[in-house]
Design goal:
The structure is a homodimer of 198-residue chains.
Chain A (H helix, E strand, L loop, with lengths): L3 H19 L6 H8 L3 H5 L5 H24 L6 H12 L1 H4 L7 H8 L6 H26 L9 H21 L5 H16 L4
Chain A binds a DNA duplex (30 and 30 nucleotides) through helix 3.
Chain lengths: 198, 198
DNA sequence: GACAAAAAAGAACGACCGTTCGTAAAGTAA
DNA sequence: TTACTTTACGAACGGTCGTTCTTTTTTGTC
C-alpha cells in the first residue's frame, strides 16, 4: 500500500548519490528533482522542508552504513576477526553500497559540526552509535583474551576512526593508490601494539 | 603604497573566520560583504571571481597554518622534540590563529575532494606540502637515531594525520572534552611503537 | 589645490534557492 | 463505475547567488 513510500526511498537513493558526489550542501531541492525526474514541488511534498530531507538522508545513510559495514561483520567470530572484518568493510563501504564518491556522513559531519539544529543532532547520534559499536567490538577482543585486560576500547576506537579518516583523505583528495594499503597496515599495527607483550 | 592590499588582507581575515564557522561553501560574496562592511561589488572587485576568492582564502589559510604550526616548531630540536611540538601546535592551531571554529582547510578538503578545478588543485598542493613536511620531520628523527632506520616516515605521517582528523571529529562534532588528551596519548603511543625495541 | 589612478558603491541582470498554493493525474476501495 | 485520497505538477513568491556595468568617492602625486 502506498506508492509514496517507493518514491520516497527512490528519492533518498538519489539523495545519497548526490551527497556522495557533491557534499551535503549540494543536496538541494532543484538538483534532486532534476536527478529523479520529479518536479520540485512534487519532490518537496515528500518531506515538507529541506531540513527534513537532510535528516531523512542522514538516517538513510546511517542505516545503509550499518547494513554494509557492521551487519556482515557479525558473521565473523567475535574478537580480532570481527574487528578486521569491520575495518575491511569500512574502507570499501561507499563502493559496496553503490556510492561512487565520498562518504555522505563524513561530508555532513564537517559541514554541520558547528551548525546547531536537528540535522546535527541526528548526525551526532549516528557517530556516537558508531563509536559505541566500535568500542564494543574492541571490548569483545578483550573478552576473548586476544587483547589484554588493560586495553582501552575507547582509545582504540578513537584511533581506528582516525585511520579511516586518513584513508578517506589520502584516497579521495590526494588520489593516492596506496591509501587502503597504508590504512590496513596501520590497523594491523594498532592491533599488534595493543596485544599482550607476547 | 596602495591601501587595496590592506583591504584585501582584511577581507581574507574575514574569509577565514567565515570558512571556519560555516565551512567553505558559506564563503559567499554577500556574506563576506556584510561581514566586512563593504558592498558586494566593492569586495568583488578585489578578486574578480568567487573562485579566485576561494583560492586566495586557501592560500591565506595555508600560509597561516605554516606560520602557526611548523614555523615555531623549528625552534625545537630536530627529532622527537620537534615532532611533539608540531603535533601540539597542530591541535591548537585554529585557536592560536584566531579562528573560533573548525579548520578551514579541513572543511575545504572534504567539500572539494571530488570537484576538479583550480580550487581543488591549490588544496591538494597544500596537503601534499604538509605531508612532505611531516614526513621530513619523521625522517629527521630517524637521522638522530630516536627512530630506527627501518621506520617508514610516509606511514607515520599518514597515521599522525589520521590522529589530527580524529581529534577534529571528537572535539568539534562530538564535543568531547577528552579529545585532545586522546590524540596526545595516541601520538605518544605512535612514537613509542616506532622507537627501537629498547 | 588640481588631477589622474585606485577603490568602493549602487543598481541591475539572470539563475537558482526553498517554499506555497491551486489544480490535474494516478491510485485505491466500494 | 463511482467516490475519495494520495501523489505529482505548474506557476509564482521573495530572497540570495555571482557577476556586470556605471558612477561616485577616496587616495596618492605633482
Amino acid at each position: 500500500m502506498g506508492k509514496g513510500e517507493d518514491t520516497r526511498s527512490m528519492i533518498l537513493d538519489a539523495a545519497l548519490a548526490q551527497a556522495s558526489e557533491g557534499g551535503f550542501e549540494s543536496l538541494t531541492i532543484g538538483t534532486l528533482a532534476a536527478r529523479t525526474g520529479l518536479s520540485k514541488s512534487g519532490l518537496f511534498a515528500h518531506f515538507g522542508s529541506r531540513e527534513e530531507l537532510q535528516i531523512a538522508a542522514i538516517d538513510a545513510a546511517a542505516a545503509r552504513f550499518a547494513d554494509t559495514v557492521f551487519a556482515p561483520a557479525l558473521l565473523a567470530e567475535r574478537g580480532l576477526p570481527r574487528l578486521r572484518a569491520i575495518f575491511a568493510h569500512w574502507l570499501r563501504w561507499t563502493d559496496d553500497s553503490g556510492l561512487a564518491y565520498g562518504c555522505p556522513l563524513h561530508a555532513a559531519a564537517i559541514e554541520f559540526d558547528d551548525r546547531p539544529g536537528p540535522v546535527r543532532d541526528h548526525l551526532v547520534g549516528h557517530y556516537e552509535r558508531l563509536q559505541r559499536n566500535l568500542e564494543r567490538a574492541f571490548a569483545l577482543a578483550v573478552d576473548t583474551g586476544e587483547l589484554p585486560a588493560d586495553a582501552d576500547p575507547g582509545q582504540l576506537a578513537f584511533e581506528a576512526l582516525g585511520l579511516v579518516f586518513a584513508y578517506y583523505h589520502a584516497a579521495r583528495l590526494l588520489r593516492r593508490a596506496d591509501a587502503a594499503e597504508r590504512a590496513r597496515a596501520a590497523f594491523d599495527r594498532l592491533l599488534a601494539a595493543a596485544a599482550p607483550a607476547a
